[in-house]
């Protein structure tokens, strides 16, 4: 009995470290944006291409990623993904040496491509490593460590990338630019070391990963396009698209929003510190959500969380001062359970294979590249308060999706449906 339980437990722990890693790396883009803006003298729109290049990888790479996982299995797919991430990180010093911003974007796309494969493999794997009735708990618990990475990374990244060089008082010229470029190199070399260590851990437990969960089926059914035949897979993909787009949109405009005189009127530095509370809310909420999901039906909890998030966004669009500021920050708490619950609820109801459904859901993360651009256009034309109406609409859709899911049937292993509880 001990042996039979220790394998999945060790495999689950190793997979959870993957969630932390890609959360950490994704959040490192936040301090990278002001760094490249200063180094390459970019406009705000140009510097936001870092985020666009990163999240576009989900739309491009998710299509073949599910087929890769089906063909190579979980363990080898994860190792290949980590290798791609190391390669992307090593392109970054080349980009800074050549002082070419376009190559920085290429490096970010390669890194995000590896993370996309990780998501396609790790999300269903975390859900599968244990009793089916606790899949929501396991994926939400793993996502909590993903959030831990997003909280830690901006602090560490800012300490390395935004010190010295062009960021010292009066810093200018080629020497200062060179120092700031080297700081970027240092940040991504630190990430390389972390990924290599993580790869060694996965290599050690690769056999347990393969043994603890059944590999997804290969062939045409593994393609994300196959999931388009499932209504619930399409609806789940739309929910993921809107959720990620809403979360990233709010995080992208939060600093400027809190800086406004009719909100808090704080400095940009202080606004950046307060932004960490938004991401910390998601982390705390996932630990709380992990416990709630053992007692509350997942779809119902998702419906309530999304409805509250929509109400908070509407409040932000209508009021100012501290109420608007804290309402915006509080959205992070209710974001907490959305991704993992949308993911598992969709997997349960999709008539397509798990690999195909997972691939389609991960493709939908491209919403993080598209919705922030739309939010920026709204902010430019109507103002930052009105920009919160976009995530409000996204959360309203997710709440309706969740209420429908609560009444829908659960499909067991792509076979005959069973009534949901």
Overall geometry comes to globular
Radius of gyration: 21 Å
CATH superfamily of the largest domain: MFS general substrate transporter like domains
Which series of helices and strands comes N to C? HHHHHHHHHHHHHHHHEE
* Poorly predicted runs: 1-5, 413-421
- Can you list the strand order of the major beta sheet? 1-2
Give the end-to-end Cα distance, rounded to a whole number of Å: 29 Å
Structural class, by secondary structure, is mainly alpha
Average of per-residue pLDDT values: 81
Number of strands: 2
Number of domains as seen in the coordinates:
2
| Text of the CATH class of the largest domain | Mainly Alpha
User: If classified by CATH, what would the architecture of the largest domain be?
Assistant: Up-down Bundle
Let me know the largest β-sheet: 2 strands, antiparallel
- Continuous helix count: 16
By CATH, the topology of the largest domain is Growth Hormone, Chain: A
User: How much β-strand is present in the residues?
Assistant: under 5%
**How much helix, percentage-wise, in residues?**
over 70%
Question: TL;DR of this structure?
Answer:
Helix content is 80%, strand content 1%. It is mostly helical. The protein is globular.
Note the topology.
Blueprint: H1 2-27, H2 29-39, H3 44-47, H4 49-98, H5 101-128, H6 135-161, H7 173-212, H8 231-259, H9 268-292, H10 298-318, H11 321-335, H12 338-349, H13 354-363, H14 367-381, H15 384-387, H16 389-407, E1 409-411, E2 417-419
Antiparallel strand pairs: 1-2
Helix pairs in contact: 1-5, 1-6, 1-7, 2-6, 4-5, 4-7, 4-13, 4-14, 5-6, 5-13, 6-9, 6-12, 8-9, 8-11, 8-12, 8-13, 8-14, 8-16, 9-11, 10-11, 10-12, 10-16
């Amino acid at each position: 009995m001990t042996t039979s339980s220790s394998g999945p437990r060790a495999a689950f722990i190793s997979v959870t470290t993957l969630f932390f890693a890609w959360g950490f790396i994704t959040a490192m883009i936040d301090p990278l944006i002001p760094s490249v803006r200063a180094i390459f003298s970019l406009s705000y729109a140009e510097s936001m291409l870092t985020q666009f290049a990163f999240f576009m990888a989900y739309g491009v790479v998710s299509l073949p990623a599910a087929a890769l996982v089906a063909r190579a299995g979980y363990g080898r797919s994860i190792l290949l993904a980590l290798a791609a991430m190391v390669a992307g990180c090593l392109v970054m010093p080349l980009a800074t040496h050549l002082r070419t911003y376009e190559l920085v974007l290429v490096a970010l796309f390669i890194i995000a491509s590896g993370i996309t494969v990780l998501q396609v493999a790790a999300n269903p794997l975390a859900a599968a490593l244990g009793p089916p009735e606790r899949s929501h708990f396991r994926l939400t618990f793993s996502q909590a460590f993903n959030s831990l990475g997003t909280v830690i990374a901006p602090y560490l990244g800012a300490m390395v990338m935004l010190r010295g060089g062009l960021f010292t008082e009066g810093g200018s010229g080629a020497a200062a630019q060179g120092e700031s470029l080297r700081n970027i190199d240092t940040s991504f070399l630190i990430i390389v070391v972390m990924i290599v260590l993580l790869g060694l851990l996965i290599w050690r437990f690769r056999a347990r990963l393969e043994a603890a969960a059944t590999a997804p089926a290969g062939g045409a059914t593994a393609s994300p396009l196959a999931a388009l035949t499932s209504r619930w897979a399409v609806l789940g993909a739309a929910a993921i698209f809107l959720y990620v787009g809403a979360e990233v949109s709010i995080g992208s405009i939060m600093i400027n929003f809190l800086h406004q005189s009719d909100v808090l009127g704080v400095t940009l530095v202080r606004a950046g510190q307060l932004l960490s509370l938004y991401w910390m809310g998601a982390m705390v909420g996932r630990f709380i959500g992990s416990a709630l999901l053992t007692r509350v039906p997942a779809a119902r909890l998702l419906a309530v969380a999304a409805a509250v998030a929509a109400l908070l966004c509407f409040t932000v669009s209508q009021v100012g001062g501290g109420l608007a500021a804290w309402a915006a920050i509080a959205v992070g708490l209710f974001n907490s359970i959305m991704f993992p619950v949308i993911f598992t609820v969709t997997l349960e109801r999709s008539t397509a294979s798990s690999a195909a459904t997972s691939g389609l859901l991960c493709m939908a993360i491209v919403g993080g590249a598209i919705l922030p651009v739309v939010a920026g256009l709204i902010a430019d034309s109507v103002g930052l308060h009105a920009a919160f109406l976009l995530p409000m609409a996204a959360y309203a859709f997710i709440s309706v999706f969740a209420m429908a899911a609560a009444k829908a049937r659960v499909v067991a292993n792509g076979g005959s449906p069973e009534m949901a509880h």
